[in-house]
Amino acid sequence: MALTYADLIEVDLGRLGSAVADWDSTVKGLKTAAEHARTGMLAKSDAARWAGVNATVTRGFVTETAKEIADLHTEAGSIHHVLDDAHTELVSLQKQIRTAQAEARKWGISVQDHGDGTVHCVYPHVRGDTDARTAEENTARDELNGRINRILAHAAEIDASVTRALNKSHGNDAHNAGHSSYESLDDAQAERAVELAKLGPEMTDKQYLELNSIMKFNARDADFSTDFYKSLGGPKDALEFYGRMSLNGTMGDNKDRLALAQQLQKNMGLALASATDPDNKSHLPASWSSEFRKLGAQPIPLYRGAGGSSAPYGYQLLGGMLRYGNYDARFINPIAEHIVQLHRKDPLRFTGNRPAPSGSDLDWGFNPSGKNGAGYDPLTSVLEGLGHSPEAAKKFFTDAPTVYREDGTVDKNATLGYSYFDELNKADFEWAPDSLAHAGSDEAKHAREMGPDALGHALEAATTGAAWDADPPVLRRDEQTAALMKQVIDRYNVASEEGPPPDVMKDSLARMGAAYIDDLNYSINDFGGSGDPLNRNAHFGQSSDGSTRTSFGEDPAANFMMLVAGDSDGYQTLASAQQVYMGSGLAAFENNEDNAKLFAQNAAKVNGILDESRSHGIREEFKDDETAKGMETTKQGEWRKTLMTGVVTAVAAGGTALVLGPAAGIVATTAVPVLLGTGASAVSTAYGNHTMQYLQDTEYKNDPQALQAVQGMTSIGQRAVTQPILNYAETTGMNDTDAKNFVNTIEQSYLAGKQKISSNEEVSQ
């Protein structure tokens, strides 16, 4: 019988708590009894000088009785451990689901209990109502629906695990207490997970679902994950299991089996990250990392007789797991370094064992997710791993490299002679084609784009301190991340001698730019080197993440923005970030008009740079097609009219940034640092709302009056800069003369920004 929404809401867990307390008392009592049996009757029996048949029978009976009492103590302890852990977890889940219930009531959402362990959240129909809902209301409904179902699934998994553990502890034998014992619920869950894993591809779909369910809710628990991997055997055993399950899931067109393999890939990656973190109380020994390096360049036969060129390399198998999880640098970085060094010697050494193209079965391999490759190129895989491991990614690009031999051991006497940043960002770097597509096919054209995309993700994590696809992302910037961002800007800009980035990297560059929009503004505020002499720090205040400002140089910053904002999506990401940042500055300087003016003038110049960069991009993209050029310009204008509609979604966790959601063409959530008022230490929800008021006041409506007043991209860009200034003037009570002068200076700054890009365009022609 399924655990329902009503069950978890209403169940009295206090009774389970009382049972835990009773079992605790039972354990203590049986411990005393077992001790007395051992030191009392058993000791006396062993010491007695008995002889004859009766003595043999009596001594055996005493020994068996003492053992049975000891077994009862062990069984009671196991039951207590399991029930105690279950009670703790269920209390937490009940609290979470009651919180969700309260939120549903606040939104007017009905939670429909299906009675099978799932629910459906809906807005009840009200007679006469159109049932139209805002984007915010729909987002709240969908989030609650997913959250409640996840909580119920977790509770159901705990219920099933406890039932299974209690049965094994008891053994269904009233006359024999010696059965399975557990130190924790994690212990029992890991045991069951490994029992299922030992079945390998022979697992039924039902068993596979059970394995994934156990792992899904325990993968981040170091006690569970460490026990799980140890119980599999060693590093080679883990690779063999993952490899067999990946091939089983990606072979053919069984979508159910593929979905199960995809979930297992994620679960094993998250569990490996948890189990290999030395800071966790429970963790695998450091030898696992060195053993993985040893196996990395070796073929690992997955089945008997499957050797030679058909066997995958260790790194191909490991790479599939590394794509998920936030890994500790001490584990993943030596592996990443070794892979890069092997790639430099022979870029195609790993992909050489790909099977021949097999028709439409292009996902057969070691990356069931299908994201960025089939899993034959471990460089792409490990870069994806770094993209989810911000601290490790930062260290990978900034720490001094270590040289590794072919077998993964350290060569202390060798020096590398190149940096990983320079190596991976070379214009002529040879990326391996991680695809089974036929040469010349449309799929094959993109086979070498997967590596650069993963590189962009790794750089995002390294520069922002958040996983590239974190939702919401939390900025964690410092001197090292800023120095690395300067390397990114120096490498990727319109004046770079190394050439432009691959197209697939541009979304990452745009999000990095958004995360450093404050430093880009700071860098532009340096005409003729006047920034520091004129104390530009005074009108940049305090950043929401507590970081200090870094200058990338006025020209490099402008050249970077010209490159990124020349592309439609890049422009939308940076322009949205700039709108948020400008709004935050005006909100912060409400009581400091001088700083507000200086800040706004510079922000207007940045807006001009972004707008003209996109105009240049449109001219270049459609220089031979005037009709397409006009349509693209109109599209940009329409986007700017609704710039803030649904874009800002939240204050980031920890109060480090406002978060831009995937609206308005932004392809992933993006963190934007904001400027705080005096004395502020983090972005609060109230401050975020205050900041957003400036932006909401400048929102463009798609009504006839607005369309008549604002025509074309240029006019819309000008209005986007001017309206917040007018709002600021009104809010602070500025007189008309001062307001006009303020707008005039803003106009000149905006035009100066546009002219800076126009000058670049003239030079490039």
Task: Give a summary of the structure in a few sentences.
By secondary structure, the chain is an all-alpha fold. The protein has 29 helices and seven strands.
Task: Please describe the structure with a list of short key phrases separated by commas or semicolons.
single chain, 765 residues, mainly alpha, three-stranded antiparallel sheet, two-stranded antiparallel ribbon, 29 helices, 7 strands, 60% helix, 3% strand
Give structural notes.
The protein is mainly α. It contains 29 helices and seven strands. The strands form three sheets. A three-stranded antiparallel beta sheet has the order 4-5-6. A two-stranded antiparallel ribbon has the order 1-2. A two-stranded antiparallel ribbon has the order 3-7. Helix 4 (53-107) runs antiparallel to helix 5 (135-170) and helix 23 packs across helix 26 (685-697). The model is unreliable at 40-48, 56-63 and 700-711 (pLDDT under 50).
Summarize the helices and strands and which ones pair or pack.
Blueprint: H1 5-10, H2 13-39, H3 41-47, H4 53-107, E1 110-113, E2 119-122, H5 135-170, H6 185-197, H7 205-216, H8 222-232, H9 235-250, H10 255-275, H11 287-296, H12 314-322, H13 329-345, H14 378-387, H15 390-398, H16 420-424, H17 442-445, H18 450-464, H19 479-491, H20 506-515, H21 517-524, E3 542-543, H22 554-565, H23 568-588, H24 593-621, H25 626-641, E4 648-651, E5 658-660, E6 670-672, E7 675-676, H26 685-697, H27 704-709, H28 712-732, H29 736-764
Antiparallel strand pairs: 1-2, 3-7, 4-5, 5-6
Helix pairs in contact: 2-3, 2-4, 3-4, 4-5, 5-6, 6-7, 6-8, 7-10, 8-10, 9-10, 9-12, 11-12, 11-13, 12-14, 13-14, 13-15, 14-18, 15-18, 18-19, 18-20, 20-23, 21-24, 22-24, 23-24, 23-26, 23-28, 24-28, 24-29, 25-28, 28-29
